[in-house]
Write a structure and sequence with these properties.
Blueprint: E1 11-13, E2 26-28, H1 38-41, H2 47-53, H3 63-73, H4 85-92, H5 97-115, H6 121-145, H7 151-158, E3 162-167, E4 170-175, E5 184-188, E6 196-208, H8 210-213, E7 218-221, E8 237-238, E9 243-255, H9 261-271, H10 278-305, H11 312-326, H12 331-348, E10 351-353, H13 357-363, E11 367-370, E12 382-388, E13 391-394, H14 413-421, E14 426-428, E15 437-439, H15 442-453, H16 458-464, E16 467-471, E17 479-485, E18 491-497, H17 499-504, E19 506-511, E20 514-517, H18 520-535, E21 539-548, H19 555-558, E22 562-571, H20 578-587, E23 591-595, H21 600-610, E24 619-622, H22 623-627, H23 631-640, E25 644-647, H24 651-663, E26 668-672, H25 678-683, E27 686-690, H26 696-701, E28 704-706, H27 711-752, H28 761-771, H29 773-780, H30 803-831, H31 843-866, H32 874-877, H33 883-901, H34 903-909, H35 916-941
Parallel strand pairs: 11-23, 11-26, 19-22, 23-25, 24-25, 26-27, 27-28
Antiparallel strand pairs: 1-2, 3-4, 3-5, 5-9, 6-7, 6-8, 6-9, 10-28, 12-13, 12-22, 14-15, 16-17, 17-18, 18-21, 19-20, 21-22
């Protein structure tokens, strides 16, 4: 039994010796692409045979047959997003190990409250407080991290909603989703192509394939059969998601939905996993360690206290306090909001980051795979040199603004007049926020701008000599020709195209307006001039003209016996800021690799202009050459080529290169603007899309969008990402050092046999979420240091908690722990009350735990100042250079004062008022901590070697 073909697969006539039936047999063709099979063979068929191959007819399908195929192949659309993704993202916030530990703690605490006799309201308050912490962190994480992955929806949005089609021999309009293989569609300029189609009738058709290939030049299309090969390269096919920019056509649909080339990109994008950032991996590892230590320590404390005869519930709550003290409850919220601060900073520098963790990942970037057009360049083709009669003429000005001049313009006016008339581009003046723009082919637009610089008015010239015929460019002739009626009623043809092809059709050259026979020496001179300009990375066009006998002469007459007018050399100028940005990447140890669909010569010329290539012989590899390399060969290529250019590459090539770099341990950022870039953008560690010129597909697949499309913004974002990582380390030291101060007094009480906790779980939560979050956020907002781009990227496997970080946490946390233990047991011993007589309501105990909480809060104020720098004295950095930190620390102390003196808060936290002398002792203790840290930094500065690129 034969299974039904996949939705949207092409249809073909099946020959069989069986008796024919009313309904023709159908079978699935392989996906579009190289290799044997009917789909690959469709471009090689004559137009008349295409209908037979697809069981269609020049009059189109019948409505009945279309309905049968619709039921068999499904709708011509891409699958929508799976439902419920929003809910899954919210639930994912509760799967973090910190959240799981706290949820379990809250549930067990609530159970302890239910089992306790009598029931203790404080235990219920603790259960509710822990649950509240989890809900707060989940809410903040969800609000900050949620970024809808609408790649599939964006791909669907690029498919036209309606199209014109022949059914039962009658033209009509129907939803594009109702197209089926075998339908005959009608296309004209301005239409979006609704499915993959084979042209069967075409009149001067050109399409823009930027969504698929990434290159925006209009490409001519014709109905003639082509040799079998890659369907995407067939000049007689048009593809879903591309645009018709000129001409009219009829075409037969041979693939719909996910069977199209566009669907192939959709499948690649959907299959590409979203990579975890280095910070995600490190935070997950940290969470596992901290959760494990918390559970183990709590279990040990519980086991030690059970034999002492303490009530079971009280013993459990004591052990729970140990667990809560070890879990940094404020870390998830602090991390999310701190990353959000980095997002806002990057947005002010034209880099919009959609996922918070990508901020830090940018700082880890070690390889940037960058596109060329629009990222390194301005995406505005500009004529910079003209050549006529052996004389070069420089053209000044950059971009589409007609500002500049042509040196000695008089001899080249006829050249520019012909070049401007032989094209369809139009120059649009500034309007609103938009500057000068070109509608149509960018190469033709550059010629119109050059004509304006020479003092010509292309619109007036067109009105004076109107066009009466056009012979569009195609990849075989490599020429475009137009015929115009001259002012005297005669006709003149203008031809432009590839220099060698045009030169072969010329018999004369223009010498001061007089045609002179084109000798072999003159041909060699023209060819040498074209080669010289091409060697400088310029795109070179030759322009010629001739008189013709009528308004629509045969194309052979138009494009022969031509008079050469001259050459025009143009290029897409690099963005002025890119070279400095590339130099900054070199200093920062970041490798820049150009990955483009353009020609190798053009790619190398741009790479040299922006500083990516400096050596005389860089490694230039095409997509076809990549296909010949196995994984080992590709790894060797990436490892052995310092200056690498990858040209003429496909989406699969990009994906493969990104994967190979990641396999080598690199953190890879990839830029792109077309739908063809979406799979690599999603698979990369950092996908960077263009905001101004990019497609919706690319923007949705990426995690960062460049609002100005400039490579320099990537470099700026990397520097900000490195700064964010340094700041994360600062507030991690700040947060975890006070966790030690919360834990050690509880452990000390266990070992000396004190029956109550020196600091309750509710107090710990108040410190972690009430007093410490704002200072931690202020540390996360520390300004970027000037040397941030002067060191290589940190290794991918570098731990967030390095030995130096852990040593600092233990040093600062140990000092705080000694201080709070001293004030607690000093209060307890000074009272003279035996340990066994203490209860939660004993006034001395309430004062002692208030001193512990206040001691941690006050010491954290000084600790925040201490961790701002690693080696440099905080006094040299400036105590007032981060006013938000001082304000946040002041708020924490004010909140602690409220906990101590406000009766409602006293009831919640079981605290007592502190005397002025108590506050003085705690302040002195904080100053001692800052002094000890300053001494440590002084000793560190006396060491001969400093770690370059570390914190200050």
């Amino acid at each position: 039994m034969r299974s039904d073909p996949a939705p949207g697969a092409p249809v073909a006539r099946e020959r069989s010796s069986a008796v024919d039936t009313q309904e023709p047999a159908v079978r699935q063709l392989p996906e579009s692409g190289p290799g044997p099979g009917p789909a690959a063979a469709i471009p090689s068929l004559p137009a008349a045979d295409v209908f037979a191959a697809l069981d269609s007819d020049p009059r189109g399908l019948t409505q009945a047959e279309a309905a049968i195929r619709q039921a068999r192949y499904g709708a011509n659309e891409l699958p929508g997003a799976a439902p419920g993704r929003l809910g899954r993202r919210l639930l994912a916030q509760f799967t973090d190990l910190f959240a799981v530990v706290l949820l379990v703690a809250s549930a067990i605490t609530f159970l302890a409250y239910l089992l306790g006799q009598p029931r203790d309201a404080a235990t219920l308050q603790l259960a509710v407080a822990i649950l509240g912490v989890v809900l707060l962190n989940a809410g903040i994480g969800f609000a900050q991290e949620y970024s809808a992955e609408r790649t599939a929806e964006s791909l669907q949005a690029m498919v036209p909603h309606t199209c014109r089609v022949l059914r039962d021999g009658e033209p009509g309009e129907l939803p594009a989703r109702d197209l089926v293989p075998g339908d005959v569609v009608v296309l004209e300029a301005g239409d979006a192509v609704p499915a993959d189609c084979r042209l069967v009738r075409a009149q001067e058709v050109a399409v823009n394939n930027a969504a698929l290939t990434g290159e925006s030049d209009a490409v001519g299309r014709a109905v003639d059969p082509v040799p079998a090969g890659a369907v995407l390269e067939a000049r007689n096919c048009v593809f879903m998601g591309t645009d018709v920019v000129a001409g009219t056509a009829e075409a037969v649909v041979f693939a719909t939905g996910t069977a199209t080339e566009f669907g192939r990109i959709f499948r690649l994008t959907a299959a590409a996993p979203r990579q975890q950032t280095p910070l995600q991996r490190q935070v997950a590892a940290m969470a596992r360690r901290v959760a494990g230590v918390a559970l183990a320590t709590g279990a040990v404390v519980f086991a030690l206290r059970v034999p002492s005869g303490q009530p079971f519930v009280d013993t459990f709550v004591f052990a729970l306090g140990v667990m809560v003290a070890l879990v940094p409850e404020g870390l998830p919220a602090t991390l999310s909001v701190s990353l959000a601060i980095g997002v806002r900073r990057m947005a002010r520098r034209h880099a919009l980051v959609k996922q918070l963790l990508a901020v830090e990942a940018l700082g880890s970037t070690s390889v940037v795979c960058t596109d060329k057009t629009g990222t390194l360049t301005q995406a505005e083709m500009t004529v910079v040199r003209l050549w006529e009669n052996g004389v070069p003429h420089a053209v000044t000005g950059v971009g589409y603004a007609p500002d500049g001049e042509v040196a000695d313009a008089a001899p080249v006016r006829e050249l520019l007049r012909a070049a401007a008339l032989c094209g369809n581009a139009r120059l649009v003046p500034p309007a609103g926020r938009d500057g000068w723009r070109v509608l149509g082919d960018t190469t033709e637009g550059a010629l119109v701008v050059a004509a304006r610089k020479a003092g010509l008015d292309p619109a007036a010239e067109e009105a004076r000599t109107p066009r009466v015929a056009e012979y569009p460019f195609d990849s075989v002739r490599k020429l475009m020709s137009t015929v115009h009626r001259d002012t005297d009623g005669t006709y003149v043809a203008y031809v432009k195209g590839a220099p060698l092809e045009l030169l072969a059709r010329c018999t004369a050259v223009d010498r001061d307006g007089v045609p002179v026979a084109l000798t072999d020496a003159a041909r060699a001179e023209v060819a040498a001039a074209a080669d010289s300009m091409a060697g400088e990375g310029l795109r070179v066009l030759a322009v010629a003209s001739r008189r013709v006998s009528g308004p629509r002469p045969p194309i052979g007459d138009v494009e022969s016996g031509l008079k050469l007018l001259g050459l025009a050399g143009m290029y897409d100028p690099p963005r002025p800021e890119v070279r400095d940005a590339v130099d900054a990447c070199r200093r920062a140890g970041i490798r820049v690799v150009m990955v483009t669909g353009d020609h190798p010569l053009t790619a190398e010329a741009v790479a040299r202009r922006v500083g990516i290539v400096r050596a005389p012989d860089p490694t230039v590899v095409t997509g076809a050459q990549l296909d010949t390399l196995d994984e080992g060969g590709l790894d060797a290529l990436l490892a052995g080529s310092a200056e690498l250019l990858l040209c003429r590459v496909s989406p699969e090539h990009k994906m493969r290169v990104v994967t190979a770099f990641q396999r080598r341990g690199e953190v890879v950022a990839v830029t792109g603007d077309g739908a063809n870039d979406a799979p690599a953008l999603k698979h990369a560690d950092i996908g960077v899309a263009m905001g101004a010129s990019g497609t919706d597909v690319a923007r949705e697949a990426a995690v960062m969008v460049l609002l100005d499309d400039s490579f320099a913004s990537i470099t700026t974002a990397v520097g900000l990402g490195r700064s964010v990582y340094r700041n994360i380390r600062k507030f991690l030291i700040y947060l975890f050092s006070h966790n030690i101060a919360e834990l050690v007094p509880i452990l000390a009480a266990t070992f000396v046999g004190f029956p109550l906790v020196p600091i309750t779980a509710v107090q710990v939560l108040a410190i972690d979420l009430g007093s410490d979050v704002l200072p931690a956020l202020a540390l996360g907002a520390e300004p970027t240091e000037p040397d941030v781009m002067d060191s290589p990227p940190r290794p991918r496997r570098e731990r967030l908690f390095s030995a130096a970080v852990m040593g600092r946490i233990l040093f600062l946390g140990g000092i705080q722990a000694l201080g709070v233990c001293a004030v607690f047991f000093w209060h307890i011993h000074a009272s003279g009350i035996p340990y066994a007589d203490f209860t939660k309501d004993t006034p001395v105990y309430r004062e002692a735990i208030t001193m512990v909480q206040a001691g941690i809060v006050v010491s954290q104020f000084f600790n925040a100042l201490a961790v701002r720098t690693d080696r440099q004295s905080v006094f040299r950095a400036g105590l007032l250079t981060n006013p938000w930190l001082l304000a946040a620390g002041g708020f924490g102390i004010a909140f602690m004062a409220a906990v101590s003196y406000a009766p409602p808060l006293q009831a919640v936290f079981n605290t007592a008022p502190l005397a002025a002398a108590d506050w003085a002792v705690l302040a002195a203790f904080g100053v001692l901590l800052l002094a000890a840290e300053e001494c440590r930094k002084w000793l560190l500065r006396r060491r001969p070697a400093a770690v370059k690129g570390g914190t200050r």
